[in-house]
Amino acid sequence: MLRYTLMRLGIFVGCFLVVWGLVSSGIFPRGFGDSNLLWVLLLALVLSAPISFIVLRRERDRASVQIVRRVDRAKANLEANRSAEDLADDAARTQGHAQSQPS
User: Fold this and answer.
1) DSSP annotation string for 26-90
2) Number of folded domains in the chain?
């Protein structure tokens, strides 16, 4: 997951640098007043999103498989804990019921 995040950040930074260069050279329009940095960030975000979606498809699938494994493992652990608690509760009830009956 960290690898995917870093790759996505790298694509964004690359797009940011390209857009900054294009705005500075006058190929892309500049932002109004002091909003130039915000304009460059917005353009870089708009460009990097579809690029990341296409280029990082394999890495995203790999990350989702890891997440599914973690969730399945957590569910299995939770179910094991529930089963252990149920067994302990049943044993305590059986023991308590046996003690309350007269001999």
Assistant:
1) TSSPPPSTT-HHHHHHHHHHHHHHHHHHHHTHHHHHHHHHHHHHHHHHHHHHHHHHHHHHHHHHH
2) 2
